[in-house]
Amino acid sequence: MATPSDRAVWDTLLDAARRVHRAHPVLSGFCAFPTDLTAQPVTRTRLPAADLFATETGLYSDQFAELRDAFVAAGSLANWQEAYRDTDIGQDFRQRFGYYCLIGENGAFASDQMRAWVVYMPVHLWYTWHHHPAEEIYLTVAGEAEFMRQGAPDVVLRPGETSAHASNQPHAMQTHDHPVMAYVIWRDKFGGPLVLSQH
Ligand code: ZN
């Protein structure tokens, strides 16, 4: 059972995400913020990236400081996920890449309308090419990263900027001298797998 204070942390985060999402024309045009949300219990897990996230100092953001801080605060309560567990994605990625769910499986809220996660990458980390059936948008909340999409120019995205990925369009990310925190949403095909691309 979550304690009332845990639930308050999640509610604060949800409110911050809702405000940012609804105020952002690209996000709200892609998918309306869910109206069917229900709270669900979260099993806490800890991965190495969660500790890096808790002590990260490089996530600059003026306009989204409230959402950034809410994602950090909930990080100590979250079910951190291990991506690509059964692949050869590499030790550095396993040790330093982090994400947890806000809305969806393992997240603090359930919805049939949308999925939402936070993704965190420390400096100088490569997230190799991957794809999935779901249509997706990344919003850079804090820090910055270089975003790559098959068929599009590589771009460095800073707070407020987005990268949209069509169904099964391969994409990748690289952090350079700054870490990045991104709010990631799916609007459909929720069950689909994450697949490493042959690129
Ligand atoms: Zn993706």
Q: What does this protein structure show overall?
A:
By secondary structure, the protein is an alpha+beta fold. The protein is 26% helix and 28% strand. It is built from five helices and twelve strands. The chain has a five-stranded antiparallel β-sheet. The protein has a five-stranded antiparallel β-sheet with strand order 8-7-10-5-12, with no helix packed on it. The protein has a two-stranded antiparallel sheet with strand order 1-3. Strand 7 and strand 8 form a beta hairpin. Helix 1 packs antiparallel against helix 4. It is globular, with a radius of gyration of 16 Å. It starts with a helix and ends with a strand. The structure holds zinc ion. Zinc ion binds next to loops.
Key descriptive features of the protein:
199 residues, 5-stranded antiparallel sheet, 12 strands, 28% strand, globular, binds zinc ion
Q: Nutshell version of this structure?
A:
The chain has 199 residues and is α+β, with helices and mostly antiparallel strands.
Helix content: 25-40%
Biggest sheet, spatial arrangement of strands? 2-4-11-6-9
Distance between the termini: 44 Å
Q: Characterize the overall form.
A: globular
Quote the beta fraction: 25-35%
Q: What is the number of helices?
A: 5
Characterize the biggest β-sheet: 5 strands, antiparallel
